[in-house]
Amino acid sequence: MADLEKLVEELSKLSVLEAAELVKMLEEKWGVSAAAPVAAMAVAPTAAAAAAEPVEEKTEFDVVLKDAGPKKIETIKVIRQLTNLGLVEAKTMAETAGAKVLSGVGKEAANDAKAKLEAAGAVVEVV
Fold first, then answer.
1. 69, 118: one domain
2. Cβ neighbours of residue 83 under 8 Å, at least 6 residues apart?
3. Whole-angstrom Cα distance, residue 4 to residue 10?
4. CA atoms within 13 A on the CB side of 99
């Protein structure tokens, strides 16, 4: 049996992107999905009930690269800093319009990444 304390310690060292990649790999290996099951409603809510429900604030954001801009090398450097990707992967991402640089990150991290990429000359959107 694996030493669970050691495993927890190792997993705690992962970046957000590495943890997301680990989830994808485990989903593929085990043939499961980590997404929470969504219960379908049997009856459509009325307009009054829908208005009474609080609006859920979005907590996870994606940073999408629209264009690398005129300083592509600077953009590639920033992508590498944000994602820990290799040079080839970062270059490919910079050349791909609509590429997700970060996925499922907090609002502060998304805005920080956007600011860094825009400072490098890229056109970025947080969704």
1. yes
2. 17, 90, 93, 101, 102
3. 10
4. 19
Residue ranges making up the domain that contains 17: 1-31
Q: Give, rounded to a whole angstrom, the gap between the first and last alpha carbons of the chain.
A: 42
**Which one, of 104, 88, 89, 99, lies nearest residue 122 by Cα?**
99
What percent of the residues of the chain are helix, what percent strand, and what percent coil, each to the nearest 5? 50, 15, 35
What letter does residue 64 receive in the DSSP assignment?
E
Of the candidates 20, 106, 19, 14, the residue with the CA atom closest to the CA atom of residue 63 = 106
99 contacts: CB under 8 Å, gap ≥ 6: 64, 65, 93
The one-digit pLDDT tens for each residue of the chain (127 residues) are 567 888 888 888 888 778 778 888 877 888 777 665 544 444 455 555 555 556 677 889 999 999 998 999 999 999 999 998 899 999 999 998 899 999 899 999 999 999 999 999 999 999 9
Please give the model's pTM, rounded to 2 decimal places: 0.55
> What's the token pair of residue 101?
């640089």
User: Do 26 and 69 belong to one domain?
Assistant: no
